[in-house]
Amino acid sequence: MQNKKNRRGFLRTGASAAGAGVLALSGCKSQREEKEVNINFNKTFRWKMTTTWPPNFPVVGEGCKMMAEWVKKMSGGRMEITVYGGGELIPALEGFDAVSNGAVEMNHGAAYYWAGKLPAAPFFTAVPFGMNAQQMGAWIISGGGAKLWEELYAPYDLLPIICGNTGSQMGGWFNKEINSIEDLKGLKMRIPGLGGKVLAKAGGTPMLVSGGEIYTNLERGVIDATEWIGPYHDYKMGFHQVAKYYYYPGWHEQGPVLELILNKPKFLALPEDLQEIVRTACLRLNRWMMAEFDAKNGEYLNKLVHEEKVPLKAYPKEVMIALKNYAKETIAELTETDAPSRKVYTAFKEFQSVINPWMEISEKAFFQDI
């Protein structure tokens, strides 16, 4: 009986709220009509977007050009964005400074590329053994992460917006088998962000190499191993031609968030409708990119394994346990010495503790063997 009463009360409350919403909308109508909106349809804005990706790179670079086209269409041609791949206008990993000083208006990339300037930045891309793509999106968009991210970038006159996610990544390409944690000692691996710090703990040497340079560096022995994204990109990049073993899972990046960083003063100087158009295009790209990667990765994993005969291997449990322990040590050291990292990671962990129980009985439970 009590449950029925609670249900009726909930429904009554919902109905009242809905009615109030209708009234509120009705009241807002006259206010909107009274408010004069001045839009100069003859004024156009021509912006430049640099990226950390090679020119015309599938999905990520392609998505940036799609976004520019969406903005142009939604604005009726009032805003045009020219997209430059890494190295076309500026070096691939100099977008942070270029946008901060106003040389370009926006840059697409990933926050962990700026760890040298902001040690807390990698938390907004990926945390080893942290949250997946779905959880990261929930934290940033609806769990307070965006506010912390904006606070971190504010001293540089930058505004970050979530703008893409690759989904769960692979563990990497190696020319030797990884049978124990000892096999990582002395290994030179292209791996950025917090994952790179974890590798260093294990005795390896992390290297930050832009996407367009990975194949050549791997071929010439500048690096011994690399992580990148997943089967689709890895196949297109040809890594199976210069590395032997393909490992999973991507313990270092379970769902890395990508970003659009904007020069904040210039962005806020835009007409409000154009600001909203840019934000909306970012969210559209965020969703499209995840869908595109998932769709393509299934197809190209099949190609790599069955057509190219790539040995697909899981990291041994011993290695995963050791890496997880090193990840805890890495994050503990960082949060002890850097106040912004401590603040961000505290919020990250609080959100994770709330969302994980739900994921356990929803997403994870669905994939359990019946």
Written overview of the protein:
With 370 residues, the chain is of the alpha/beta class. Helices cover 51% and strands 14% of the residues. It has helices at residues 2-34, 60-74, 95-100, 133-142, 145-153, 193-201, 214-220, 231-237, 264-269, 272-307, 317-337, 339-366; strands at residues 45-51, 79-84, 106-109, 158-165, 172-174, 188-190, 205-207, 225-226, 245-248, 257-263, 312-314. The strands form 2 sheets. Strands 7-6-8-5-9-11 form a 6-stranded mixed sheet. The chain has a 5-stranded mixed sheet with strand order 2-1-3-10-4. The protein starts with a helix and ends with a helix.
Low-confidence stretches: 1-34
Q: Based on the structure, what is the oligomeric state of the protein chains? A: single chain
Rg from alpha-carbon coordinates: 23 Å
Q: Secondary-structure element order, as H and E?
A: HEHEHEHHEEEHEHEHEEHHEHH
Q: Profile the largest sheet.
A: 6 strands, mixed
Q: Order of strands side by side in the largest beta sheet?
A: 7-6-8-5-9-11
Number of helix segments?
Answer: 12
Distance between the termini: 35 Å
User: Averaged pLDDT, please?
Assistant: 90
- Outline type: globular
Proportion of helical residues: 40-55%
> What structural class should be given to the helix and strand makeup?
alpha/beta
Tally of strands: 11
